[in-house]
Structures are given as structure tokens and as C-alpha cells.
């Protein structure tokens, strides 16, 4: 029972981090129809910048906030490079692959190759059903829930959110009704960057990250986003939770080394299921 | 006549290139021979990937996994008492067979979904190797792979491998060229322009795509097999995700779907990476600098080419060449030759056909 609770709670909090990454994918895809391969890089920047700011003596809270803003700015820059001008969709995807390895180069240059971590919120662990739970988990849950509510409300209920979705479903009609499609795309990249940054800020205290962890974080986030067909933020959150919990159970009850392979196999199955559900989907 | 003249120029160019290829290994130092072999190996992989990207219009981020599967097949068989030649022949066959099996479900995906699906295949490959240590040597890898022997001919020095690799390069480029100009090739080209259009005119889209994918894996497999014998040691570190991305960059740089583009892309990126490694390696500099430099430069090249020259270097060069010729007085004098040009579309130069500018 103790082990079960521990796996479950660890899985939920890691899953929520994946959900944040997945939301970044969904946000950018919904508005621009571009799948941003560099989504994991935002998390790396978020975590690593927080680490550097904390080391420079800037207090908790401020460091995290600045790191998230910086990740948002990086998102904006990536957006300008990937979708600025007139460029085919798949070329944008390959450009984001380039941006992702560029980020790895920057990460390696500034922070080196050793794993980076910092202590999250001070304070001792608390106990549920005999399982020791780090206080950081609580922060992960609260922060991500606040963000999820904000994003779901923003997309579903506000004029601005609907305008953003309009850009993806019919860019021409959106332009006709006075929406600046390019600017909306850049805003989506900025928000996606900030969401990724938040994911990195939250997960770095839980598990040390190396400069090249962006690929594995990114692909898990993508897998979670695929659950909702890359367009549904709600299902993306669910997908993140499923992947987070499944990962912990496989690692705990079977073998930690099978965790990646299982997650990836699950991703391929999901992709195929999606391909079947949406025949000849948007891209040709 | 222009086309015939063009063909003459290009056959001279081919002969010249062949002579240089043959002469180079005799003059190169051992380090440079290694680079030369690497360029050859990458050209083989890139030629396959280029067919996939240029014709099926699909990005594979798992090509380094196929390269790795070829390497492991050759290494494991050679270490278990098979003749090196049999092991080398088995490498592309095993790789192609696996790609065929993976491709049946996976190629139902397209665009970003296929890119991530193939990336997942690559990551699964990297995750499986450490778990099957008894066969693959795990993360330590397999060493002491015997050197290659074809009948009485022992292939051991770098120079021997250089010749072997470039013979294989020639064969793969000829296969690629023939595919481009064959009936399936035309089907594939139609497919790159519009999948629904091609399938409406009777192109068996799914089957061609699967064949294309399988063939690109076979190319990667044979290159991987040679690599295993050449280096004499395989480990999962030799097949990182970045290598898959590098292959994509080489395709984009050279120009998708062009046979010569594979060669140009592979050569340019490999040489750049070597130059950066030489520049960045010095006791006074941080040890990770070469990697930082090459990742950074790859990224810049990739983004710059996609934004500025979407048809790649070879594509850009050949359209410049065409423009220059159109402007010359000789070609204006023979305006009626356009008729001939139209009637012999199939006999164009390998790098003259135009592909959609999209990825």
C-alpha cells in the first residue's frame, strides 16, 4: 500500500509536468498547425535559468518567475524563426528540430554536461498512508492546476481564446474577420514557451536534468498531447497523467529500465489509433 | 541538342569525379581516410533518406537506428562465427526486413506524426540495447569485430575500406538514380506532389511508400554493416538521436530527392564537423566545445537552408545553371528544341527534375 501510494503520487506530479508540456504542444498546434519539436527545450531553459538565478542569490519565487518569463521570450524567438514569413508546415517542423539541437548546444555551453538540480520549497516531507511525499509535489499539483484552469477557461470562454483557435481551423476566414494570424501564432509560441518553462521549473527539483533531456521530456509531452489529438487541452492533461502514472508503475513494479520503452511503445500505439480516427488528417 | 550537350558535360563530370574518388585514398593521411570513409557511409544513408523525404515527402528521425541495426547485425554475426562477408550481406537484409515490419503500421502516419513515430523507434532501439547485454554487449558494446574478408581478399587498411565504401556508394547512387527514373519513381514523384492526386491516377501509394521506407533502411543497414567492420567496435553511443537529425540535415542541405544532393550534403556536413572538432579541441578549451560548436552550426545551417534555399544546395545550383543557359544566345537561337525537351522528360539529368519545394 505504501509503495502504491508513493508510485501513484509521484506519478501524478510527474504526470502533471508532462501535461504542462503537452499543453504547450496543443497551444502551438491549435493556433499554427506546427508541431514544435523544441517544446522540451523550454523546460530545460526554465529549469536551468532558475538554477542559475538561485545560485546568484535571487530568492525563490522571483527566480522561478523570471525563468518562466525568459522561457516565454525564448518561445517568442523560436516562433519568429519557425513560422515567420511564408513557409510550409513540415519545413517549420524541421526548423524546430534545428532549434532543439541549437538549444542543446547552448545548454551544454552555459551549464555543462552534468545534471542540474536545485532544492525546491524548503520544509520537510509529509506522510500519506505511510508514504513519504516531498513538499515539492504539492507545489507541482497546485501550480499546474491553476495553469490548467486558466488555459481551459482562456480557450473555451474568452474571445481571445476563440480567436486563437480560429487561426488554426481556418486561417483565411480568421484573417477576413480581422484576426492577425501571424501575431496569434507568435503569442501561442510565447505562451507555449512559458508553459514549457514552468514544467522545467517544477520538475528540476524532483529529478536532475541534463542539457539533452529535452528530447525525452519533449516526446513524453508530445505523447500526452496526442491523446487529445494535439488539439484538446483537457485530454492533453489526462494524457500527461496517464503517462506519468504508467511510467512510475512500470518503473516500480517491473523495471526502471523498461519505463522508456513502454512509454514509447504506448506513444506509437496512440499515434496509430489517432491516424485511424482521423483519416488523411490535416497534413499531406 | 542542348540536352545531349548537357549529358556530355555531365558524363565528363562523372568520369572526373570517379577518377578523383579513386585517386584520393592513395594520397590521404590515415585521419583523412577515416573522414573519407565516413563521408561515403553517410552518403549511402543519406541517399536512402533523401528518396524517402523527397518522394514520399516524409521525415524519418529514426535513420540512425537503422544504421545501428545494420552495425549490430554485422557485428553479432561476425562474432558468432559467421563469415564476415555473410555478416555484411545480412546487415541490409535484416535492417530492411525490420523496417518493412515496422513500416506496415508506422507508415500509416504522416508528417509530424511519422517524424515522432520514427523518433520513438530510435529511442526504443537505444533503450533495448542495454537490456539485451548478452547479445549486444549492452551499453559497453561489442568489440574485437574481425576485419572484413571477401574471398581471398582481406580488407583491413583504411584505404581498402575507402575503396569498398565508395564502390557501395556508387552502387547505391545508381540504384537511387534508377528508381528516380523508373515507373515507381514517377509514381513516387507524383506522390510527393499530391498523395490523393497520385492515388487517383492509379499509383499504389501505400505500397510505394513502404518500399521506399524499406529501401532507405537497407541503405542505412549496409552502411552500418561496413561501419562495424571498419571501426571494429559498436556501442549504442555511436547511434545517438543527434545522428538521425544529422542525416536529415544532410538531406536538406544537399537537396531532397536529388541523387547528387546526398553526396554533397554528406560530404559538406561531415567535413564541417571535422573542421569544428579540430578547431574546438585544445587542452585550454572546455572538452565539450567541439560538440557545442557542431550542434550549433548544424542548427544554423539547417534553419538557414530551409529559410533561404528550400531546394537545397544542389537544387539551387541546378536552377542557377538552367537560368544561365536560358540566357545564353545559343539556347535562344534554338528555341524549337523545347519540343525535344518535352518529349524526353524522362531522360533528364538526375538533378534536373523538380520536386515540390515542401519538405
Provide the gyration radius of chain B in Å.
21 Å
Taken as a percent bin, the fraction of beta residues of chain B is under 5%
Query: Low-confidence segments of chain B, ≥5 residues, pLDDT <50?
Result: 329-359
CATH class of chain A: Mainly Alpha
What is the terminal-to-terminal distance of chain B?
A: 34 Å
Report on this model:
The complex is a heterodimer of chains A (284) and B (359). Chain A is mainly alpha-helical. Chain A has one domain (2-277): ABC transporter involved in vitamin B12 uptake, BtuC (Orthogonal Bundle). Chain A has helices spanning 2-32, 39-55, 62-83, 89-111, 135-157, 159-169, 171-176, 181-203, 214-227, 233-254, 259-277; strands at 126-128, 131-133. In chain A, helix 1 (2-32) crosses helix 9, helix 2 runs antiparallel to helix 3 (62-83) and helix 9 runs parallel beside helix 11. The longest helix of chain A has 31 residues, at 2-32. The radius of gyration of chain A is 18 Å and the shape is globular. Chain B has 16 helices and two strands. Chain B has a two-stranded antiparallel ribbon. The radius of gyration of chain B is 21 Å and the shape is globular. The model of chain B is unreliable at 329-359 (pLDDT under 50).
Detail the topology: elements first, then pairings.
The complex is a heterodimer of chains A (284) and B (359).
Chain A: H1 2-32, H2 39-55, H3 62-83, H4 89-111, E1 126-128, E2 131-133, H5 135-157, H6 159-169, H7 171-176, H8 181-203, H9 214-227, H10 233-254, H11 259-277
Antiparallel strand pairs in A: 1-2
Helix pairs in contact in A: 1-5, 1-6, 1-8, 1-9, 1-10, 2-3, 2-4, 2-8, 2-9, 3-4, 3-8, 5-6, 9-10, 9-11, 10-11
Chain B: H1 2-27, H2 30-56, H3 63-79, H4 84-106, H5 111-128, H6 133-136, E1 148-150, E2 153-155, H7 158-181, H8 183-193, H9 195-200, H10 205-231, H11 241-254, H12 259-280, H13 289-308, H14 312-327, H15 329-333, H16 337-343
Antiparallel strand pairs in B: 1-2
Helix pairs in contact in B: 1-7, 2-7, 2-10, 2-11, 2-12, 3-4, 3-5, 3-10, 4-10, 7-8, 7-10, 11-12, 11-13, 11-14, 12-13, 12-14
